[in-house]
Amino acid sequence: MVGGGFAGLQAAIALQERRHDVVLLERRGILGGRATSFRDALSGEDVDNGTHLMLGAYRATLELLQHAGAMDLVLAQDNLRLDYVDEKGPTALVCPPLVAPLHLLAGLLWLRLPWRARWDALRLGLAVRFGRSPQGTLAEAFAQARQGPAARRLLWDPLTTAILNETPERASAALFWNVYREAFLSDHRASRLVFLRAGWARLHERLAAYFEGRGGTLRRRALAQTLEVEQGRVRAIRFAQGAGERAAIQQGQGAAEVRLEADAVVLAVPWSAVGGLLPQAWRDEVPFQGLSRLEPSPIVSVEMWLDRVVVEPAMVGLRNSELEWVFDKGRLFGRNGGPQHLAFIVSAARRSLSQPNAELVAAAETALGRCFPAMKQARVLRSHVLREPAATFACTPEAEKLRPGVVTPIAGLYLAGDWTDTGLPATIEGAVRSGLAAARALDQRAR
C-alpha cells in the first residue's frame, strides 16, 4: 500500500479487516495527503492545508470514522444550514427536517433571493431528479435548465465551485448531478454539513492508530521509487526509508534503500505520481498514459487571527467576494472568544495562485469590513497564506474520459484516489470509496 491519505488508509484498513497482511508506505512524516494540517507555532492551533468539508451523504467516510473510533472529532449539523452575508446583511438557507427534497425547497424560503431565482432553483431540482445526466459543462447544463443570472450568482456558482473546485464554465455537469442527487434528493440528513473539531492530520493519526492497533505496519518517510513487474505481475516495490528518529535526522543520516516483496500493491498516490513508479514499458499503456492529461485545480486559503470576534457563524458564504467562504476555526475546534482564528477559502484559484500574499490578505480584510460591522474596531494580529497548486484534479468533462478504474492491466496492481473513476468529484468521500473498491477488487482476486 502506497499513500497515507484517505484512499490509502481506507484500503489498508479494509484489507486488514479481510485478513491480509498490510504494509502502508507514506513518504512524509505526517499523514493525510492533500487533506492534512500542521500545528501553528504561535497560536498552537491546527491549520489545515485547505479547509475541507464533509456532508451527511459521505456514508463511506463516516462509517470509516465510526470503525476507527474517531466520531468524537466530528461536528455534524442536525439539519442543513448555510449562512451567507453581503452588504445587505446576513441571510441563510435553513432546511427543516422534511422529506427530501422538500427540506431544500422549504429552506429556500428563508434565503434572501429574488423569486425568479427560487423558481430557477426548483426548475434545476426537477431537471436533476427526472432528467438524464448532461455530458457537457455545468454552465451549459445551467443554460439548458434556464438558470438566470441571479440564481447562478447568488446560489449555484459559489456552491458548485466549492463542491467541484472548478468553475461552472469548465466543470463536468454529470459530476454535479451525481452530488446533487446524493446530497439533496436521497435523505434530508444527507445534505447537512459535517465539520471537523481538529486538524485533518489528527483525524488521520486516529485512523493510523486503528490500523496499527490491529496489526498493520505503517512506515513513514518511506518514499516509493519503483515497482518491479515481471511477466505482467507486480512482484515488489522499492522505496527509500528515511530516518524516523529526531536524533538520526539531526545527524544527517541518509535514507536506506529497501526492496519489499508483495503479492499485490495499491497505489493511493496523486495521479501525477503513478507514471514515475511504473516500469518504462508500462507508462504508455492504457489507462496509465491518460493520467498525464489530467489537469490540476488549485485552492488558496488565507488564515487570519483577529483580536476580537467579528464573524459569528462557524461558516459563512461571502456573497460577491473573491474569497467565497470563511470559517471560524477556533469555534469549530471548541474555543470561543478572541482571538478569532478565521480561514478564507478560494476554490479553483488559478488567478489567486499568483497573487501576492499582501493582496490576498487585503482582500480578506476588505470582505470582512464590507460584510461585518464589528471589523471596524478589529485588528489583524497575524495572517498566513497557503497555496495548494494541485489540490484536486480539474473536474472537467474531458477528465471523466481519463479517470481510470481501480483494476489495472498489471496483475496485482490497483489504483486508489479521488481521481479514479468514482462518479464523484475530487472529494474525501470519493477517495474513501476508491480505497474500498480497490480493497474489494484485490481481495476477490486473491481468493
Describe the structure using short key phrases.
447 residues; alpha+beta; FAD/NAD(P)-binding domain; Polyamine Oxidase, Chain A, domain 2; 3 domains; seven-stranded mixed sheet; three-stranded antiparallel sheet; 14 helices; 23% strand; globular
CATH class of the largest domain: Alpha Beta
Report on the biggest sheet. Answer: 7 strands, mixed
What is the total domain count?
A: 3
Low-pLDDT parts are none
From the 3D structure, determine the CATH topology of the largest domain.
FAD/NAD(P)-binding domain
Strand content: 15-25%
Going by helix content, strand content and strand pairing, the class is alpha+beta
The CATH architecture assignment of the largest domain turns out to be 3-Layer(bba) Sandwich
- Using the alpha-carbon principal axes, give the shape: globular
- Count of beta strands: 19
- Counting DSSP H or I runs of 4 or more residues, the number of helices is 14
> What is the helical fraction, as a range of percent?
25-40%
The neighbouring-strand order within the major sheet is: 7-6-15-16-17-14-18
Taking the alpha carbons of the first and last residues, their distance comes to: 19 Å
The CATH superfamily of the largest domain is known as FAD/NAD(P)-binding domain
Mean pLDDT comes to 94
Characterise this structure.
- It is a single chain.
- The chain folds into 3 domains: 6-28 and 202-293 and 398-446, FAD/NAD(P)-binding domain; 78-191, no CATH class; 296-393, Alpha-Beta Complex (Polyamine Oxidase, Chain A, domain 2).
- The chain is 33% helix and 23% strand.
- It contains 14 helices and 19 strands.
- It has a 7-stranded mixed β-sheet, sandwiched between helices. It has a 3-stranded antiparallel β-sheet with strand order 4-8-5, with no helix packed on it. A 3-stranded antiparallel β-sheet has the order 10-11-12, with no helix packed on it.
- Strand 6 (81-86) and strand 7 form a beta hairpin.
- Helix 1 (6-17) runs parallel beside helix 8 (200-213), helix 1 (6-17) packs parallel to helix 14 and helix 2 crosses helix 14 (428-446).
- The two termini are 19 Å apart.
